[in-house]
Amino acid sequence: MSRPPRVLVIAGSDSSGGAGIQADIKTITMLGGYAMTAITAVTAQNTRGVQAVEALSPDFVAAQIDSCLADIGADAVKIGMLGSADIAEVVADRLEDLGRPIVFDPVMVATSGAALADEATIEVFGWLMDVATLTTPNVPELAALGGRAALEEAGVTFLAKGGDAEGPEVTDLIVRPGQPDRMWSAPRIETRHTHGTGCTLSSAIATLLARGLPLDEAIESAREFVRAAIEAAPGFGAGSGPLGHQAVRVN
Question: Which keywords describe this protein according to UniProt (predicted)?
Fold first, then answer.
């Protein structure tokens, strides 16, 4: 058997298992990858909200990244919740010359509505977007980053996710410097079980890029994986429930 693609996830932990590092590991594993983690923060949260957050020190986050890259190495990196501006700067510095696909999910607010990034942290996102192969903002995140015009002017390649928009269709749009836009649309799945969809999508894209797929194909397959996981949601919790990663089978 060939070795699985190595994916390093730099993100926060979700104690309830639906999002964050836990969703990332599930996604990478189900897509045939080998998951490693550099945890930026730990949270007390469930399907109803985030009750507490404790960020780790920037030095410890850096030590986790260094340990993984110095020994096992990585074929791709996914960045999620960062926890502080200092952590964001350390991550950008460590990855700037990595030379591997990097998918940056600019997490600012949890599905439940809890804030997961302050203004100082968001200010560092420009550096991370420069480092990343792809940035995956949802509707409010894109607005907070200055909108399409600002990201285009900065030369950022980004996937504008439409799950938070209104309407019967969910439309995602990739914007790349010097290339035509490409759009994917599918009927909206009416469900409250969407906790961790952004984490799952970005981790799936990173894993598929690590497997050598072109960016467009990685996005298309990742979207299919997320939709299948939503449809297989186990129905846990009283709020926005987790996806059913364990039920998705792929080639």
Answer: ATP-binding, Kinase, Nucleotide-binding, Transferase
